[in-house]
Specification:
twelve-stranded mixed β-sheet, outer membrane lipoprotein receptor (LolB), chain A, DUF4412 domain-containing protein, two-stranded parallel sheet, alpha+beta, signal, 3 helices
Length: 227
């Protein structure tokens, strides 16, 4: 290989790497919105009308906040992507209750396992399939649960980088930001699909329990859930 040809290859590689680096946009503060579809078991069909059609997450640095209003109660989950800790804030106006539950990384993992029906291990394969979601190029990841053989898929993009939040933190073992993925919380299956992202100023998010909230221990929460 002559020197000129070798130098040309190196230059092309460097240009290609620079293009990839510039193509990925890092967004440190803003709002991301997901459309939500539900697949409910027969005994939960009556809840369909109460469930939100989209999820909105605000984020700033490593912290994100996800709000879900169910009518009779509302819940906000604040997630720290650096420490993997979370803070759940639930308000039940009819009962005049405000409950806060702080969870460490280990406790958050345990909660996810309980909601999913136990700890699950997946074989994850990056496929050659691609499509655009919300204007971003995505690659399909095929997931197979090792013990049951159940299959699912995740579509992720490397064109943007945002902090993981309480929704996307359940998706592990893939490269990039998941823009289409599913969740199964004790039989309540939901599919999240990215709608939009706005890079705008966000009011400071913190892990401090607000005034008026009663703090519940994680162990007491598990006891109420039958765990």
């Amino acid at each position: 290989m002559n020197k000129l040809f070798k130098t040309t290859l190196i230059a092309i590689a460097c240009i290609g790497y620079t293009f990839i680096a510039q193509a990925q946009k890092i967004i440190k503060e803003g709002t991301v919105t997901y459309a939500v579809e539900y697949d409910l078991p027969p005994d939960q069909q009556s809840m369909a009308a109460m469930l939100p059609a989209e999820f909105v997450v605000t984020f700033k640095g490593d912290l994100s906040k996800f709000n879900m209003d169910m009518g009779m109660y509302s819940t906000s989950v604040i997630y720290n992507n650096a420490t993997k800790e979370s803070l759940s804030l639930t308000e039940v106006p009819m009962q005049n209750k405000k409950i806060a539950v702080k969870m460490s990384k280990e406790q958050s993992d345990k909660m996810q396992q309980m909601q999913a029906g136990g700890e699950k291990d997946f074989d994850i394969t990056a496929t050659t399939e691609s499509k655009k979601i919300g204007g971003y190029n995505c690659i399909k990841y095929a997931l197979t649960e090792k013990s049951s053989g159940d299959k699912s898929e995740v579509w992720a993009t490397t064109e943007i980088e945002i902090p993981s939040n309480s929704l996307t933190s359940t998706v592990k073992g893939i490269k990039g930001v998941p823009l289409e993925f599913s969740n199964d919380a004790r039989g309540m299956k939901s599919k999240m699909t990215f709608k939009s992202i706005k890079e705008d100023a966000v009011v400071d998010i913190n892990m401090t329990v607000p005034d008026g909230f009663e703090t519940m221990k994680f162990e007491d929460l598990l006891s109420q859930m039958g765990g």
